[in-house]
Structures are given as structure tokens and as C-alpha cells.
């Protein structure tokens, strides 16, 4: 089974690609934005970026990872439509998946600022349920985003665990506090 890690900034076309994979592969698509909007449906368009929501988001993602890994164990391809801005996030999931005999594929959707701004503005179209994103935020996120390297895209060697963590599983437990390895 393959676990697809969909990587890219907002507006890059991640969910569009994830839906294509869902249809092509009869895969289980897990898109945390949909869960966040469904659970916190009364949020203002800017509330999503608060520290409290960021923590909720991490906890949602941890449970979606559990479900995704469990589904892959049961024989489904899985699409994690998370964005995965950090190399370490991708390395952790590549390692965790490999340890249970699952393939991973990093699907990277690059996007430049101008096209990104156009798409996000067109997508929101005044819909207050969409997350609001300012020009300054979009520009800042480009500097934070860590694009996958050739090794990641070819499913090459997984880098060593960052100092201070006993294993990639321990790193993942710190990154996604709700994730319980035993449950998925
Ligand atoms: N390859 C593409 N070319 C042009 N527009 C696209 C492309 N992929 C997605 N879009 C459009 O851009 C917007 C953002 O796409 P989406 O898949 O929601 O991005 P993300 O999930 O990365 O935020 C949507 O309105 C979508 O229809
Ligand atoms: Mg999306």
C-alpha cells in the first residue's frame, strides 16, 4: 500500500491533486482543513491562525495519521493532504510507514507567490468559511516552507533523527501529541 504525502503551500493545488489520487487509486483521502472547518465552524476567517487552533490542528492531524496508517494496514492507499512544510515531518512519516511495511510517495506541488495569491483569492471568493490569508503571511510562509529534495522525491535514504529524540516515532509523538502509535 502507498501513503501519499501531499506537500505544498496553501493554494498549491494539494487538495485538487489529492482528490485526483482518491479517484484514481480508490484511496482514502484525509484533508485536515475539512475537519478543522467542520469542527470549528463558528470560527472567524482569521481564528484558524491562533495558537489554540494551531494546537487543535496538531491534534486533529495526529488522529488522521492514526486512521490513515490503520487504513493502509487494512489494504487501502492513503492520501495525507496535510501540506507537510517541514522535512522532518516527511522524514518521520516515511520512517513510520516503512517500519510497518508501507510505501510512501512524496507528492510536491510547487507554487510561486503571484499564482498562489490569485488562486487563494479566487477560491475564497468572499466565503467567510475559508481561512483568510494576508499577502504578508503568504510571503512569510515561502521563507518557512522546506521544499522536498531529490532524495525525498525518489524515496531515498531517510535522514537521521534530530538530536534530542530517540527515534522518528518519538519525534512524531512530540509533533502530533494525539498520535498513539499502538492505535495506528
Ligand atoms: N494545476 C492547477 N492550475 C490552476 N488552478 C489550480 C490548479 N490546481 C488547483 N487549482 C485551483 O487553485 C485553487 C487552490 O487549489 P487547492 O487544491 O484547493 O489548493 P491547496 O489544497 O493546496 O490549498 C482552487 O481554486 C483550485 O481549483
Ligand atoms: Mg487544500
TrEMBL record:
Cited InterPro entries: P-loop_NTPase
One family name in Pfam for this protein: AAA_33
Lineage: superkingdom = Bacteria
Q: What is this protein called?
A: AAA family ATPase
Species the sequence originates in: Microlunatus aurantiacus
